[in-house]
TrEMBL record, chain A:
Identification of the protein by name: Amino acid ABC transporter permease
Organism annotation: Pseudomonas typographi
Annotated keywords: Amino-acid transport, Cell membrane, Membrane, Transmembrane, Transmembrane helix, Transport
ABC transmembrane type-1 domain: residues covered: 24-215
Keyword DNA damage: no
PROSITE patterns per the UniProt record, alphabetical: ABC_TM1 (PS50928)
SUPFAM superfamilies: MetI-like
Membrane topology: Multi-pass membrane protein
Coiled-coil segments on the chain, per record: none
Pfam families in alphabetical order: BPD_transp_1 (PF00528)
Regions crossing the membrane: 20-48, 69-89, 95-112, 194-218
NCBIfam families per UniProt: HEQRo_perm_3TM (TIGR01726)
From TrEMBL, chain B:
Organism whose genome encodes this protein: Pseudomonas typographi
Keywords associated with the record: Amino-acid transport, Cell membrane, Membrane, Transmembrane, Transmembrane helix, Transport
UniProt KW Transmembrane helix keyword: yes
Lipid bilayer topology: Multi-pass membrane protein
Transmembrane segments: 20-45, 57-80, 86-105, 190-217
Source organism, top-level taxon: Bacteria
Family note: Belongs to the binding-protein-dependent transport system permease family. HisMQ subfamily.
The protein, known as: Amino acid ABC transporter permease
Lineage: Bacteria, Pseudomonadati, Pseudomonadota, Gammaproteobacteria, Pseudomonadales
From TrEMBL, chain C:
Keyword entries, A-Z: Amino-acid transport, ATP-binding, Cell inner membrane, Cell membrane, Membrane, Nucleotide-binding, Transport
UniProt membrane topology term: Peripheral membrane protein
Subcellular location, principal: membrane
Pfam families linked to this entry: ABC_tran (PF00005)
Protein name, entry field: Amino acid ABC transporter ATP-binding protein
Organism encoding this protein: Pseudomonas typographi
Length: 253, 224, 245
């Protein structure tokens, strides 16, 4: 191992630092791609689960099983399974694409569950009223359900997406060169593990913390929305809203 | 494309996987309860402690909830030897997961403490209860009631999260799966069986926690 | 030719019959009131007419058109002609008062936005809420919300209006303002089928009053006759129990 002063000098002058930054971008790319896919597909999944049409029943059952499996199998196992299944199928995908697919699957399941909880929070009479006014299912979704459920959906969805930045650390196990794996590479080049992993930790922190603060602020905003009396609420009746890890798992009350 | 699934070899390692599942539960159990202790202490310190204590607890929570637990374990396991502290994989995983859980649980308990109604505490004070008794008879039952669903879900979350222990050679379920997949070269089977065991494990745990909550605390937690 | 014709209608939740061979017709321009104890099926009847609850037998026709509750298109056509005002107002919480009134004519019926806006403002000023157009439902009193709900129903230009216990959720001092709006509608010749517990109001505004019990209509007569000389023992018992204010 190199002496500490040499390590520090090299770390902040050489290409090592930009190397870490590029890896951070790769981490962000995984998280953003997973979340965008999760938001879109998760919304569709949540909508399909609400449909009552008989011929969609098999699809609904598949979706329920998919969501439950994804939420009860560890991220790590899902990642490895995706890798090995895709390799066995003979696909020639890069590690990054494989991690991307796994990340999308997981985000979809969790966000679908968050959307479902949001939709369940819309009172049935609101939907009945829209039906009697001849709203089409899509109109009910976009003019009644989404506008009314976003304040239930946004806080857990946002904190899930923030925690997703951390979860993608596991993709390093597939060999995707994101932050964690970049750290490993640097350590094999003679840097101190303590130094490098400490640094990697700080980079994650720098990515995640501002977003958590933003999430907490958003949550405060959503609590006031449509509820002008919220400020006048007596002390002690404020709902419990601690910052939670993977909220989709935790909000299953 | 010519991959044919053969579960036979995995099923021969059945006792191994079962032992792994038990280790997983043990690790999760230890991490959870140490986390609960840290969390309760942290939440109380944040509420009643001196400013410097409050600030340092806050810093701990913010730092541990905003960094991946994988990296926390890396620092503990690969980093600490650089400064002369060598931990076994099991020690590193238990310490790391407990500290991580403690940070999240501090936040959860803080929310719970904030939701205790002041009027109830005042009523207890007029009944001449001292601080300890107030905590025992008012705060704790309230926390158990309101936080139970969250705590039981958190336990499941730790069961899943403890799988990263396998990457450090801890013999829990994911670790066993990694080991079996590398010795038998039947990776898909190994990991899908491990996944299935995780599903069954968490499902039984949810069911058990639901029953405990329902019969002991009269709380209805969702278990699906 | 009756405007709304209900024939031998039945409906059940599980094995529990809620409507049991009910027949009723409403002529154009008539106001028909349904009275009866709770659980007699009054609100279920309105829900079935609106296609929110599936009937298990019988038929309903509007104008000359029979409604097939199995077919989405047929239910849509029925909802074009009938509007309902709910007990709990059910205004869309996420929309301002004006948008609540305008959203269906513009988005569902695809009518011209400017024209609809003028109509909506006229409707709102009729119920005295012109100055609340840009306020959200949560900031209104129950009575004001219910008057907005009536405007929202009328904005559809329905042929028939259903009113489901529209004053039951209101504070007593707010009931008057809502009933005044309904009286005005009755004078304008709106065809209405209403469920109400306000006996004095029912007596004043209705052309026909139907007494319901156990999912059927026990007795139907003009109000003076039903309130002063009820024929059926069930109606007599009910009349003795209801409080006269």
């Amino acid at each position: 191992m190199l002496p500490l002063s040499v390590q520090l000098h090299q770390l902040f002058t050489g290409f090592t630092f930009t190397f870490l930054l590029q890896a951070a971008l790769s981490t962000l790319a995984l998280a953003v791609a997973g979340c965008s896919c999760g938001l879109l597909v998760g919304l569709v999944v949540a909508c399909l689960r609400r449909s009552r049409t008989l011929y969609l029943l098999p699809l609904r059952m598949v979706l329920v099983v998919f969501v439950e499996l994804m939420r009860r199998i560890p991220f790590l196992v899902t990642l490895f399974l995706t890798l090995f299944v895709l390799q066995a199928l003979g696909t020639n995908l890069s590690f990054f694409s494989i991690a991307l697919i796994a990340v999308c699957l997981i985000a979809t399941a969790y966000l679908a569950e968050i959307f479902r909880a949001g939709f369940d929070s819309v009172p049935q009479p609101q939907i009945d009223a829209a039906k009697t006014l001849n709203f089409s299912p899509l109109q009910i979704l976009f003019t009644v359900m989404l506008p009314q459920s976003w304040k239930v959906v946004l806080p857990p969805a946002f904190s899930f997406m923030v925690s997703f930045i951390k979860d993608t650390a596991l993709a390093s196990q597939l060999g995707v060169v994101e932050l964690t794996f970049a750290g490993k590479i640097l350590i094999t080049r003679g840097y101190s593990a303590f130094l490098i992993y400490g640094l990697v930790m700080l980079v994650y922190f720098a990515l995640s913390w501002p977003l958590s603060l933003l999430g907490a602020w958003l949550e405060q905003c959503t609590q006031r929305a449509f509820n002008p009396t919220a400020d006048a609420m007596p002390a002690g009746t404020t709902p419990i809203t601690p910052a939670l890890p993977n909220p989709a798992l935790l909000d299953r009350r | 494309m010519n991959y044919s699934l053969q579960f036979g070899e995995i099923l021969r390692h059945w006792p191994d996987l079962l032992a792994g599942a038990i280790t997983t539960l043990l690790v999760a159990f230890v991490a959870f309860w140490v986390g609960v202790l840290i969390g309760l202490g942290g939440a109380l310190a944040q509420r009643h402690g001196r400013p410097w204590l409050r600030r340092s607890v806050r810093a701990y929570v913010v730092f541990f909830t905003n960094t991946p637990s994988l990296i926390q374990l890396f620092v503990l396991f690969y980093g600490l030897p650089d400064v002369g502290i060598v931990l076994t994989p099991m020690q590193a995983v238990l310490i790391g997961l407990s500290l991580n859980a403690g940070a999240y649980l501090t936040d959860i308990f803080r929310g719970g403490l904030a939701s205790v109604r002041q009027a109830e505490l005042e009523a207890a004070a007029t009944l001449n209860m001292n601080t300890c008794q107030r905590f025992r008879y008012v705060t704790l039952p309230h926390l158990a009631q309101t936080l139970y669903p969250m705590l039981s879900n958190f336990f499941i979350w730790i069961v899943l999260g403890s799988s990263i222990g396998g990457l450090f050679g801890v013999d829990e379920l994911a670790g066993k799966a990694i080991e079996i997949s590398s010795t038998t070269m039947r990776s898909i089977e190994a990991f899908s069986v491990a996944g299935a065991i995780y599903v069954v494990l968490t499902f039984i745990a949810s069911l058990f926690l639901y029953a405990v909550g329902y019969f002991c605390l009269r709380v209805r937690a969702r278990f699906i | 030719m009756p405007h709304l014709d209900i024939n031998n209608l039945s409906c059940s939740y599980g094995s529990q019959p809620v409507l049991d061979g009910l027949s009723l017709s409403v002529e154009k321009g008539q106001v028909v009131s349904l009275i009866g104890g709770s659980g007699s099926g009054k609100s279920t009847l309105l829900r079935v007419i609106m296609g929110l609850t599936q009937p298990t037998g019988g038929s309903i026709s509007i104008g000359e058109q029979a409604v097939d509750y199995g077919s989405a298109a047929s239910v849509r056509a029925a909802r074009e002609k009938i509007a309902i005002v709910f007990q709990q107002y059910n205004l869309f919480n996420n929309m301002s008062v004006l948008r609540n009134v305008m959203v269906t004519p513009t988005r569902v019926q695809k009518r011209d936005e400017r024209k609809v806006r003028d109509e909506a403002m006229t409707l709102l000023s009729k119920v005295g809420l012109k100055d609340k157009a840009n306020v959200y439902p949560a900031q209104l009193s129950g009575g004001q919300q219910q008057r907005v709900a009536i405007s929202r129903a009328l904005a559809l230009q329905p042929q028939i209006l259903l009113l489901d216990e529209i004053t039951s959720a209101l504070d007593p001092e707010l009931v008057g303002e809502v009933l005044d709006s309904v009286r005005q509608l009755a004078r304008d010749g709106m065809t209405m089928l209403l469920v109400s517990h306000e006996m004095r109001f029912v007596r004043e505004v209705s052309d026909q009053v139907a007494m319901m019990d156990k999912g059927r209509i026990v007795e139907m007569a003009p109000p003076e006759q039903l309130f002063t000389q009820p024929q059926q023992p069930r109606t007599q018992a009910f009349m003795q129990k209801v409080a006269w204010h």
